[in-house]
């Protein structure tokens, strides 16, 4: 990934961060230009190789997040935003951002659980879920009731995840 690609992607991340933290949504007016501008920037800098680079990156961001969306872990805006991140920065950097973002999301989730003092209840819920998977596997076991879901804006984890991936390339 070229350093300019990260800096080109950063304004989209900043605006997505603001809208996600305020409304828990990332609208299409952010994600569509992120994807299109990523393809355009890579195409202008690298020709058809740049377009293929952007396509591979967009797929690397879109497909894993689509699976997470189907499981109820992230919203559709996050899926499209990661396609934009991938179009700008390519598949390798995008995979790194996904991994770091999931690590930050896990840490944020546990901080919230501990702050609410519901750690034991959550652990019992996970134990029941695992027991249910072994005795009667159904896809509905992966979906929990809305009151049981721990929700926070995923961009709270994506921004530090992107920073960690960017800084990790320099270490």
From TrEMBL:
Family: Belongs to the peptidase A24 family.
Keywords, sorted A to Z: Membrane, Transmembrane, Transmembrane helix
Domain Prepilin type IV endopeptidase peptidase: 10-109
One MF annotation (Gene Ontology) recorded for this entry: aspartic-type endopeptidase activity
GO cellular component: plasma membrane
UniProt xrefs under InterPro entries: Prepilin_IV_endopep_pep, Prepilin_peptidase/N-MTase
Ranges that cross the membrane: 26-44, 51-71, 91-114, 152-170
Domain of life of the organism encoding this protein: Bacteria
Listed GO biological process terms: signal peptide processing
Protein name, entry field: Peptidase A24A prepilin type IV
One Pfam family hit: Peptidase_A24
Organism: Paenibacillus sabinae T27
Keyword Transcription regulation found: no
Keyword hit for Transmembrane helix: yes
């Amino acid at each position: 990934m070229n350093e300019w690609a990260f800096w080109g992607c950063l304004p989209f991340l900043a605006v997505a961060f603001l809208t996600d933290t305020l409304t828990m949504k990332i609208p299409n007016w952010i994600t569509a230009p992120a994807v299109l501008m990523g393809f355009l920037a890579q195409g202008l800098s690298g020709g058809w190789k740049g377009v293929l680079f952007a396509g591979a990156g967009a797929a690397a961001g879109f497909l894993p997040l689509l699976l997470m969306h189907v499981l109820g872990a992230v919203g559709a805006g996050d899926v499209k935003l990661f396609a934009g991140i991938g179009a700008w920065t390519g598949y390798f950097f995008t995979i790194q951002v996904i991994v770091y973002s999931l690590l930050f999301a896990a840490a944020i989730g546990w901080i919230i659980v501990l702050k609410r003092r519901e750690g034991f209840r959550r652990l019992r819920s996970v134990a029941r879920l695992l027991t249910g998977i072994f005795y009667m596997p159904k896809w509905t076991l992966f979906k929990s009731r809305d009151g049981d879901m721990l929700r926070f804006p995923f961009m709270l984890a994506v921004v530090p995840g992107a920073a960690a991936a960017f800084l990790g390339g320099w270490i």
